[in-house]
């Protein structure tokens, strides 16, 4: 499947490339980003280089770099993975570099990818997990129409403590109803 390029008001989503590796490395090395996403694996630079060089060719997923109009710099990524064409569902994941969080880029990226998911791919459901300690992300997803579907208790570590994973989902008819608001 050819990976799309999507344009919004502020941002452009394009396939991740090998030359994004420096910025991806920054993102996966950020302690707060790792905490908020539950990342525990310590990536090597070689892993990041290989991932950036090969991810656009992988089937069953769409990994896109978030960039702003007029600049091709990788600000973060948004991913539709576990795409199941039979069940018409996928999982959504968003991660932004530290300097670009809280600016609305992630919200617009999600809106663009949901349009692709429901209008372009014909999906019925998009799901995601968000850590209970990531209250800003939880609020953003709720504002975009995602509904809490469940909770995995003590599924992740938050330093020395445990935290829950909140499972959320958005159905096609909920997405369409939200487009009318």
Short overview:
It holds the Pfam family Acetyltransf_3. By secondary structure, the protein is of the alpha+beta class.
Write the layout of secondary structure elements.
Layout: E1 6-7, E2 11-15, H1 21-29, H2 31-37, H3 45-54, E3 62-68, E4 76-84, E5 89-96, H4 105-120, E6 125-131, H5 135-143, E7 147-158, E8 161-171, H6 172-180
Parallel strand pairs: 5-6
Antiparallel strand pairs: 1-2, 2-3, 3-4, 4-5, 6-8, 7-8
Please report the total strand number as a whole number: 8
**Spatial strand sequence of the major β-sheet:** 1-2-3-4-5-6-8-7
Secondary-structure class: alpha+beta
End-to-end C-alpha gap:
32 Å
Strand content: 25-35%
Query: So, the CATH homologous superfamily?
Result: Gcn5-related N-acetyltransferase (GNAT)
CATH fold annotation: Aminopeptidase
Q: What do these coordinates show?
A:
The protein has helices at 21-29, 31-37, 45-54, 105-120, 135-143, 172-180; strands at residues 6-7, 11-15, 62-68, 76-84, 89-96, 125-131, 147-158, 161-171. With 181 residues, the protein is an alpha+beta fold. It has an 8-stranded mixed β-sheet with strand order 1-2-3-4-5-6-8-7, with helices on both faces. Helices cover 33% and strands 34% of the residues. It has one domain: Aminopeptidase, CATH 3.40.630. One of its GO terms (molecular function) is acyltransferase activity, transferring groups other than amino-acyl groups. Keywords: Transferase.
Keyword list:
alpha+beta; Aminopeptidase; eight-stranded mixed beta sheet; globular; transferase; GNAT_dom
């Amino acid at each position: 499947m050819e990976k799309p390029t999507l344009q919004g008001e502020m941002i452009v989503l394009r396939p991740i490339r090998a030359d994004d590796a420096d910025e991806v490395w920054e993102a996966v090395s950020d302690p707060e980003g790792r905490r908020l996403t539950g990342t525990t694996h310590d990536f090597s630079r070689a892993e990041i280089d290989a991932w950036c060089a090969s991810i656009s060719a992988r089937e069953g997923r769409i990994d896109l770099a978030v960039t702003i109009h007029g600049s091709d710099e990788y600000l973060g990524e948004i991913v539709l993975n576990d795409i199941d064409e039979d069940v018409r569902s996928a999982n959504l994941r968003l991660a932004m570099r530290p300097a670009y969080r809280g600016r609305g880029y992630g919200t617009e990226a999600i809106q663009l990818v949901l349009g692709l998911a429901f209008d372009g791919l014909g999906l019925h459901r998009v799901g995601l997990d968000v850590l209970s300690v990531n209250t800003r992300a939880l609020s953003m997803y709720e504002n975009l129409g995602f509904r809490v579907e469940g909770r995995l208790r003590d599924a992740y570590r938050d330093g020395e403590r445990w935290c829950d994973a909140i499972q959320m989902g958005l159905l096609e008819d909920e997405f369409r109803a939200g487009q009318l608001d």
